[in-house]
Amino acid sequence: VQLQAFGGGLVQAGGSLRLSCAASNVSIRTYRMAWYRQAPGKQRDLVAAITGGGRTNYLDSVKGRFAISRDDAENTVYLQMNSLKPEDTAVYYCNQGGTVWGPGTQVTVSS
Is the pLDDT of residue 96 over 90? Predict the structure, then answer.
């Protein structure tokens, strides 16, 4: 399994970004997919997760601002991030099934 993440970048506070994570070599259909983030000097935290059945859960600080979704036909999971804050600045990682990690994508939110 290979995961590739796209969509990171620099955005002003209040702006939006959409991250994509595309999987290759295996279907994501039955897997729990998740986004984590890690800021410098901090632990890696779960930001959002979605089960194969579509159930979602979120880090408290992003509830109402971020939305995770999946397109199993495209083998891709998304993270729509709205109303971004400087504290959302981190490297964001895609995860499949709790075991497979994609390369991180940097999200920087300027104040």
Answer: yes
